[in-house]
Write a structure and sequence with these properties.
The protein has about 230 residues and is mainly alpha-helical. The chain contains ten helices and two strands; from the N terminus they run αααααββααααα. The protein has a two-stranded antiparallel sheet. A hairpin with a 5-residue loop joins β1 and β2.
Length: about 230
Amino acid sequence: MNIELLKSRPVIIRNELLDHYNDLGLNETELVILIKLLHSAEISNKQPSIESLQQGSSLDSREITAIIQRLIQYDLLELNVSKDEEGKFTEYMNLDKFYQRLSEIIEQMKVEDVKEDQALAFETVFKNIEQTFGRALSPYEIETINQWLDVDHHELSVIQAALDEATSQNKLSFKYIDRILLNWKKNNVKTIEDSKKISRQFNQPKMKHTVQNVPKFDWLNGENPNDK
């Protein structure tokens, strides 16, 4: 068969399954049979024959049967018997529980990725604050940062923006940064873009109103400005 054609039609397997099959309780042999079942399910949800699952492997029929039983015990596979279109009783596969378990693993990976990103962002902001102040932070200052995060629920990016704002105003102090964050919270600032809008409004030069000397006329007594 043409090699290029083989390359263009790969077997598609979720990377999360390859990286976390052990979290599903599977060993390598069980993984191969599960992949065969997934591949078979793309064509039909009928239970494939033991012989077809055995093909290409070194496993005998008893080992294949034992693996299928373990997949059922792992709550990854269900086999239901019902009549097919010809009225014959046939075993049908249900792999919904496998997909549910895999989905849970993927969601857990996302949560862990978010936690790692937050930890990295916190470390970055913490270092930026120390570098900006040019010294190690005191326990009180560290507690203040924790309060910004845990009590006031400011995003790390907003804290960084407040630090930048205080630096640009040449008013670098924790009290001033805290005042900025308090003001932003009152104005529902949740993103860097929100903070920029508030800063532009606050720093925008005030319009000066000039009062011109307007001559006064006695309208009630019929005085006309055109007569002057």
